[in-house]
Design brief:
Layout (H helix, E strand, L loop, with lengths): L4 H17 L20 E5 L4 E7 L5 E6 L5 E8 L13 H7 L10 H11 L2 E6 L4 E8 L3 H13 L5 H18 L3 H14 L12 H5 L3 H11 L5 E7 L3 H12 L25 E6 L5 E9 L8 H13 L4 H9 L5 E6 L7 E9 L3 H17 L4 H14 L7 H13 L6 H10 L3 H11 L6 E6 L1 H4 L8 E3 L1
Parallel strand pairs: 3-7, 8-12, 8-13
Antiparallel strand pairs: 1-2, 2-3, 4-6, 4-7, 5-6, 9-11, 9-12, 10-11
Amino acid sequence: MRLDHQARIALALATLMLAGCAETSPAIPQASSPAPPTSPFETRDVPVIHSHVYKAVLPNGVVVVVIPRPVVPVVSFRIGVLAGSDRDPDGKGGVADLTASLLNRGTRTRDALTIFRQIDETGGNLEAEASRDLTTVSGKVLKSDLSSLFSIAADMVQNPVFPQKEFRHNLLQARAGLMDEKDHAGPVARNLFYKTLYGNGPYGHPVSGTLRSVSRITLQDIRDFYRTEYRPDRTVVTFAGDITPDEALALTKSVFGSWNPPSPASRDVSPTTIPVAPPSSKTILVNRPQFAQTMVMMGSPGIRRNDPRFYSALVMNQILGGTTTSRLNHVVRQKNGLVYYIYSGLDAERHAGPFFVVFQTFAPNTTKVINLSRKLLAEMKQQPVADKRVETTRNNILGQFPFRVDTDDRIASLLLYIEAYDLGLGYFTDYPESIRRVTSASVQTAARDLLHPGHLVTVVVGPITKTGMRPNGKDIVMQ
């Protein structure tokens, strides 16, 4: 009988520790060496973990990125396809999500049961999911079983058959999940907020779609989406763990090297389709009389992740509402006791996601918190931040950076993120250097560009009559 995944990894760790005890001094993992001049890899230093990152591109366009970490005999990998919900057909939000959910439901050579049995035999795990910008197949396994698990994952990506029965089952599940969301303030507020800001743009609908859009999806939509959006020239494969760059490249070539889709490239979704100017102030009131609290999400369009202003905007957001010591948290929650929680965020992705503030409060406090939050946004926009506060925030961000690369899973995910968002192979040195260059002046510039307290989309979900808010003729009221 085969050991389960966790037991096998534990056994491997124990063996490694016993081997180390036999030495007169503790074993230290050796840092990988840069690629020689004739290597197919582009390479850069990764100082934070004393290693290197390697990148190669197959003739068909598949990108391979590797960080070797031969600490334990385990490998994590990601197969990412630039086919997220931002590429859903018009009016059919949820297609990318449903497509991802069906990848493990059968291929040309494996039915669903065979896939699950073979995954179980490796002792590893394999998951597929869609996000706004990507569909990702994630795996983790002992090195001895990597070839088997990776081959299953590649088969799922290249050869899915989308059985009718499985499609109907997953469609019903998706509808049930969306029905359940209607009773929760968070999803209702978030979905209406994005819809109001972005309309029919790439981020105007949730990844899972809506009840209306999902009801329109057919099996042919799934097959058409796969045929046009899943392509080798839009696929990134990342590895982290006990694997060399040459091993990773050879493995990827063996299963992806002959992938040549018959369809032409699909339409390009340009970032310019996302609004970048602040909208007119707009308030959406969603009456949920059965709730005791209100959930509020307010904000305006922001920036793309590869925008040069991102790092100053990140520091600005941390100071304003990104930490427990932020201005919003200190003034609204700790000093005045008006909310259960409050925070701000910067949803910078392949397209320009929003800057937003989210809070939950006792219904009668709603208007007071909205006004106080707007006041704090205005102060951030108009008044420079002290140099010492900027320095402290920079140090906090830099101190958190090593924790983004402390496991193979996180490294594999980060490598995919770097490639998907066009951040460059020098990210591991560029990121800390860019944070260090942030100044009080650049923070104020970011605040002036991104904060629009007089032009916010505001969504309020809760018992509207108890909030004291009254529609002014411009507000949208929903039941």
